[in-house]
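Bumping with the actual sequence this time:
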Amino acid sequence: MNKAETSQELQRRLGLWDATMLVAGSMIGSGIFIVSADMSRNIGSTGWMLFLWIISGLITVMAALSFGELAGMMPKAGGQFVYIQRAWGDLVSFLYGWTVFTVIQTGVIAAVAVAFAKYTGVFFPFISVDVIAIHLGNFKISTAQLFAITSIILLTWINSRGINNGKRIQTFFTSAKLLALLMLITAGIYLGLNQNWFALNFAHPWDAIQLTQASTGEWSSQPVYGTALILALGTAVIGSLFSSDAWNNVTFIAGEIREPKKNIPLSLFMGTSIVTVLYCLANVAYLGLLPLHGDASAHEVIGQGIQFASNDRVGTAAASRIFGDNSVYLMAALIMISTFGCNNGIILAGARVYYAMAKEGLFIKKAGTLNKNNVPGYALIIQAIWASVLCLSGTYGDLLDYVTFASLIFYIVTIAGLFILRKKEPNTERPYKVFAYPLLPMLYIAIALVICIILLITKPQNTWSGLFIVSLGIPVYFLAKRKNNSAAN
């Protein structure tokens, strides 16, 4: 055994506050400052846009409450992987872990790292996707990609040195971005109440008008209602759902949380509730500072509106109405803080899934070992390598389209496991039982299924590709099982 590897167990060093900071910090990245632009083009309605943010928040809280029961039953490292394994068996749990590694966790790490690099470029222009650092034939690596990879390596190194280091980073950056977001919301709503955009934006709040762009680049609009409205809402909600994702990461580190049977359910509820309220209020602030509808050819933030905010940077456009020209730098700094803290939480938590899988013989064996600092160092390294590859591949943008769909599928599978375990293990200790069972988990499953069906209709390329990535894990699973059986014999 390598000196860096030990048989030590994970140490329970995180309390309720730390767990809540991980939930909130992992959820808040750059999405809240960007995705409202695309959502507003899809539905063109203030009422429906706020409805989607509220619905996203509610179903996220519903899922978190459902996970709370499972977390109380199984306070082990690996979280959702462990819940699926106990309810559905090795194959389904492996497919979840496979998707987490190939797409969900590492894809988000790569995308968030690139977003961090992009906004760092506001202060240091040489960090840009347009500045090529390495050029080998058709293969090019930009300074932004290199900086993104550097940030992944740095956070991986910090987290490899012990859970306390990751905890301190998470608490500091999450507290900072919560405070900054709250200040932006307060100033935005205050100024909005003294302007007329609230009245104009809410004059016809339920008139949905969808914008589509022709191959020539020209935009056209058409009212949507009935079935078309349902499809538009199901497509638009992907933005708010993606912005609200990663809340489940706290379950991955259950083996390092004190009093996990109490603190994990509480942190899930508190963290998702805090972020849901802030997200809804942030969009109210946007609507108080900017018109919803805009013109793609406009050069001023008022003319562009939320729909055509420059590069979809709605947060920056709204901040410019408060802080003037300095808003570009203020928002860039806020998003840098937000994305850095977000990636810290995702990197910290993700490695615990591979650690739990390796313990069950479903991942590279060495990933199931702890280093001298009592953290899964090898799992952290593997995660960093693949996330870095995704940064270089240029395909992380497509992968992100698969993330929310794949996440929804496995949330449905996990919450359906509640019903299986209630039947299979009626006498198992459940320190917390999900509120309004079976109505609440059934409602979540129904809503999530409807969204998945709509996405299969409206975004077939990305959703079917996501299912293909999941299905690729099936032959990998059987190959791994065959190898393990051969080794045992």
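The tokens above came from a reply further down the thread. The first helix runs from residue 16 to 27.
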